Amino acid sequence: MMLMDARKQPFLLMLYLQLERLLWQRPRIPYVLILGRLFVGLGVGIASVTAPVYIAEASPSEVRGGLVSTNVLMITGGQFLSYLVNLAFTEVPGTWRWMLGVAGVPAVVQFCIMLCLPESPRWLFMKNDKAKAIVILSKIYDIARLEDEIENLSVAEEEERQKKNDVRISDVFKSKEMRLAFLAGAGLQAFQQFTGINTVMYYSPTIVQMAGFSSNQLALLLSLIIAALNAAGTVLGIYFIDHFGRKKLALSSLTGVIASLVILAGAFFGRSSGSSNELFGWIAILGLALYIAFFSPGMGPVPWTVNSEIYPEQYRGICGGMSATVNWVSNLIVAQTFLSVAEAVGTGWTFVILAGIAVLAVVFVTVFVPETMGLTFVEVEQIWKERAWGSSYNNESLLERGNDS
User: Fold this and answer.
1) How far apart are CA 133 and CA 122, in angstroms?
2) Same domain, 150 and 35
3) What are the backbone dihedrals phi and psi of residue 232, each rounded to the nearest 5 degrees, phi first?
4) How many angstroms separate the CA atoms of 181 and 199, rounded?
5) In a domain? residue 168
6) Coiled-coil region(s) at which residues (predicted)?
7) What is the pLDDT of residue 6?
8) 264: closest CA among 204, 223, 327?
């Protein structure tokens, strides 16, 4: 898929999404609903890989993180809007059909807007269409910066020509620097899910009711607030990611996530002990809110941003797809096991387990994830070469050069 140009990808993506919406509009046929889920899964999967890479390749290095994070904002903002839409259709005949069908409207709008997008200038350059690439780059950079970018792309192109063109999945694991890069990217994606974000987003009404709030309306309202916090936190992440760096932001986010999960665990332990249910119920709500407030600016956008910039050109598509697969498989595992684990060991211990995973994530980020803020793709690739082969390499000087470019 990543070998396609930017104009062909949206056609296929929107085809999947529109087919999915049409299929979901046909009631009473479970197999049709399953087929619809298949199409929406394919569409979202394509978008989750191609969108961050396209944005990263068309962005100046100093604002690349913020622009890629904007893609995450569109996701979290969409989740919030979906809650509002669902609430609006709760009293309408054919409720669930409208809820599913109305999602086709933004898909059509997105399709039309995507037709106006140019191809990735980096992709064009690597395909030897330099004239068109330079025209697009000239709309992004001033004259002085344009020359530097063309030089960087020329260096990258020359390096790519010296490598074999056909990259297979097995090739990722044959190269030491690629193993390190993929470990960092896929590990971030896995820890994003295993620290429980989609457990909170999928089951927030259930968690609220577990905390002692029996009203469905109140549970939905509190869940709407959680979704709004998620979107608002992502806005902060857009600013922080290019000012404090990916690694610092991820570590700060995980520290807050650990504290929030401990609060949630304590609230459920307290409630199960027979103490004031109402008090511990509100403490659980506080824990949920703090969890989202800490997670959304950091571990929400950072994995997608890092994965869009840590792989060499020829590996970017395949590694991006593999790491996105890790994300979605991890999402599936957590979503399918949360309620079962909570029933088996108790909700409090379930949050303790998630907190323990978050501690492991702190160690992982500290050891395996480099800082890439402000670096060009060539400079990021050099980091992996130096890490793989043990040469002394001054990351700080790279950061300075990247920020000065």
Assistant:
1) 7
2) no
3) -65, -40
4) 27
5) yes
6) none
7) 46
8) 204
